[in-house]
C-alpha cells in the first residue's frame, strides 16, 4: 500500500516516479521525439479491424492528462457502428461543402493545396473507429451542476495525449474539425453541456499511402531560452 498522509483534510500518497540515470533520460527523450517526429496525418485507412482493447487503452491514456482542479472535463465517444459512421460522414461533408465554397478565405484554401484536401471525407467511413472528443462546459454529479475550470486547455492537453497514444500504438489518425460541429452532439445524443471538440478517425494507414513532404520547424524557430 502506498505511503500516505493527510493534507488539508485530504489524503495524499507518496509519489513514486521513476528516477533514471541521466544517460537513460537523454536516450528516452530522443527516442520519444523520433517516434513522434515520424507521426503524420493520414487520410487513407485500411478497413482492417483493430482490437477494441487497443482503443480503450488509448482513451485511458488520454484520460491521464492534467486538468483544471482535476475535473477531467472530457467525454470520449468511440464509434464503430457503420451506420453511425455514415451518418457522421454525410453531416460532416455537408458542412465541409459550405466551408470550401463560402466560409474559407482564398488564402486559407491556398494554404491547404499542398495537403490535397477537399470537402470529401471518406476516411470517416473507412477507418474502423471514430473517436469524438467532447468538452464538458460543466459537470454533473448526483443531479447537481459542478463547475469546471480551464476546459478548453484541459481538453486540448488530453487530445494531445490521445494523438500521441494513437501513434505510439502503431495506428494513424487525422485531426478533423468540421465547423460547426454541433451535428456530432445531435447524432450521438450527447447532453447540452457537452460540445464537440475534435473528431479523430483511427486505424491502420492504407498500404501505399502518400503524404505531403512537409517539414517541422527547427528547434531554433520554436525555442526561446532565458
- Global structural class: alpha+beta
CATH class: Alpha Beta
Annotated CATH architecture: 3-Layer(aba) Sandwich
Helical content, roughly?
25-40%
Q: How big is the Rg?
A: 20 Å
Mean pLDDT: 94
CATH topology: NADH Oxidase
Number of domains: 1
Low-pLDDT segments = none
Write up this protein.
The protein is globular, with a radius of gyration of 20 Å. The chain has 226 residues and is of the alpha+beta class. The chain has one domain (42-207): NADH Oxidase (3-Layer(aba) Sandwich). The strands form three sheets. A four-stranded antiparallel beta sheet has the order 3-4-8-7. It has helices spanning 22-37, 52-62, 82-103, 106-112, 123-126, 151-168, 182-187, 219-222; strands at 4-7, 10-13, 74-79, 129-136, 138-141, 144-147, 172-173, 194-203. It has eight helices and eight strands, in the order ββααβαααβββαβαβα.
Keywords:
226 residues; NADH Oxidase; two-stranded antiparallel ribbon; alpha+beta; four-stranded antiparallel β-sheet
What is this structure's SSE topology?
Blueprint: E1 4-7, E2 10-13, H1 22-37, H2 52-62, E3 74-79, H3 82-103, H4 106-112, H5 123-126, E4 129-136, E5 138-141, E6 144-147, H6 151-168, E7 172-173, H7 182-187, E8 194-203, H8 219-222
Antiparallel strand pairs: 1-2, 3-4, 4-8, 5-6, 7-8
Helix pairs in contact: 2-6
Amino acid at each position: 500500500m502506498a505511503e500516505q498522509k493527510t493534507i488539508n483534510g485530504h489524503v495524499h500518497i507518496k509519489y513514486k516516479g521513476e528516477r533514471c540515470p541521466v544517460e537513460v533520460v537523454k536516450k528516452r527523450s530522443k527516442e520519444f521525439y523520433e517516434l513522434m517526429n515520424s507521426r503524420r496525418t493520414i487520410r487513407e485507412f485500411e478497413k482492417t479491424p483493430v482490437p477494441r482493447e487497443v482503443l480503450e487503452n488509448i482513451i485511458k491514456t488520454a484520460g491521464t492528462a492534467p486538468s483544471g482542479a482535476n475535473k477531467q472535463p472530457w467525454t470520449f465517444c468511440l464509434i464503430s457502428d457503420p451506420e453511425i459512421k455514415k451518418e457522421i460522414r454525410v453531416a460532416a461533408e455537408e458542412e465541409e461543402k459550405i466551408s470550401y465554397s463560402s466560409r474559407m478565405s482564398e488564402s486559407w484554401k491556398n494554404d491547404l493545396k499542398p495537403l490535397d484536401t477537399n470537402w470529401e471525407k471518406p476516411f470517416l467511413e473507412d477507418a474502423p473507429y471514430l473517436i469524438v472528443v467532447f468538452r464538458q462546459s460543466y459537470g454533473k454529479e448526483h443531479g447537481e451542476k459542478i463547475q469546471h475550470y480551464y476546459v478548453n486547455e484541459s481538453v486540448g492537453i488530453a487530445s494531445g495525449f490521445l494523438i500521441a497514444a494513437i501513434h505510439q500504438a502503431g495506428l494513424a489518425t487525422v485531426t478533423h474539425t468540421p465547423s460547426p460541429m454541433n451535428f456530432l452532439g445531435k447524432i450521438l445524443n450527447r447532453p447540452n453541456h457537452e460540445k464537440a471538440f475534435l473528431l479523430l478517425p483511427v486505424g491502420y494507414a492504407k498500404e501505399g499511402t502518400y503524404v505531403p513532404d512537409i517539414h517541422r520547424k527547427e528547434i531554433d524557430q520554436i525555442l526561446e531560452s532565458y
